[in-house]
Design goal:
Blueprint lengths: L8 E3 L13 E10 L6 E11 L4 E5 L6 H8 L7 E6 L2 E2 L5 H7 L3 E4 L11 H9 L7 H14 L15 H14 L4 E5 L7 H18 L2 E5 L11 E6 L2 E5 L6 E4 L3
Parallel strand pairs: 1-12, 4-9, 4-10, 7-8, 8-9
Antiparallel strand pairs: 2-3, 2-5, 5-6, 10-11, 11-12
Helix pairs in contact: 3-4, 3-5, 4-5
Length: about 260
């Protein structure tokens, strides 16, 4: 399990290798605040982060340290206040709402609240993800939704409404919906929090295969020590700053200092 920072050596991030594709996510000097006046509070402080296609990055840290805020900024759900956030090569700082909405079509998001439509079955909720793929026919989108539900162990629950599903089953429907859109970037906030050990392992293995087979970049917030081994890289957030484990796996080094 990633421990608290013990060695605070600056880490300087380089760009992508020559002739290699550009990063899926490139964050530089990102800062963010909530509130106004005396209530104004800084939640992100000069964050730098690069995630390449096919890379799985796990983000840990205490509650309230800014992890979800970082996810929503990268996911184009909030306006960038200060710094640079580039996703698929597109700058989000200064972007319009329409530009952010278009960018989100390439991003799969899994949040703790599930956000399932109560009037739709599990299959119909997942098919909403497939509906972002206009090249597929209705039958192909339906069949794909069923395949993703089978992949997360819900083949027998296709026609159930959300109120007939447990919390863990709702989470798996949300995961299947995010994957059905064939995202180039997947952002997941505690995707295994409501899942038992076996199901959680199956889900993260599925995300790992998605990254490997489709070149999808994955950024996952987690407190689950059982899944840290799937990561290509572990980063920790503390007081709005990012830290990364060094090569020995012991001490931590900070992003973004010069």
């Amino acid at each position: 399990m990633v421990g608290a920072p013990s060695s605070r050596t600056p880490l300087h991030l380089g760009g992508p290798e020559k002739n290699a594709p550009g990063p899926t996510v490139a964050v530089q000097h990102l800062s963010h605040w909530y509130g106004k006046g005396e209530m104004r509070r800084q939640v992100l402080q000069g964050v730098d982060l690069v995630i390449d296609p096919g890379e799985v990055v796990l983000l840990t840290g205490p509650s309230g340290c800014g992890k979800t805020t970082l996810l929503t900024l990268i996911g184009a759900l909030r306006q960038v206040m200060e710094g640079s956030v580039r996703v698929f090569g597109q700058e989000l700082c200064g972007s319009s709402r329409a530009q952010r909405q278009e960018l989100r079509q390439g991003i799969g998001m899994i949040f703790q609240g599930h956000n399932l439509l109560r009037c739709l079955t599990a299959e119909q909720n997942v098919q909403m993800g497939s509906d972002l793929l206009p090249s597929l026919s209705y039958r192909a989108r339906r069949d794909q939704a069923r395949e993703w539900l089978r992949a997360v162990g819900l083949a027998d629950h296709l026609n159930k409404l959300p109120h007939d599903l447990s919390g863990g089953q709702k989470q798996r429907v949300a995961i299947a919906r995010a994957l059905a859109a064939r995202p180039r970037l997947l952002l997941a906030d505690e995707p295994t929090a409501a899942l038992d050990k076996q199901t959680g392992r199956e889900v993260v293995d599925l995300l790992k295969r998605l990254a490997r087979d489709q070149g999808c970049a994955v950024l996952m917030v987690t407190h689950d020590p059982r899944i840290l081994d799937v990561a290509d890289r572990l980063v920790q957030m503390e007081d709005g700053r990012l830290w990364q484990a060094d090569a020995s796996g012991g001490s931590m080094v900070e992003y973004g200092e010069s």
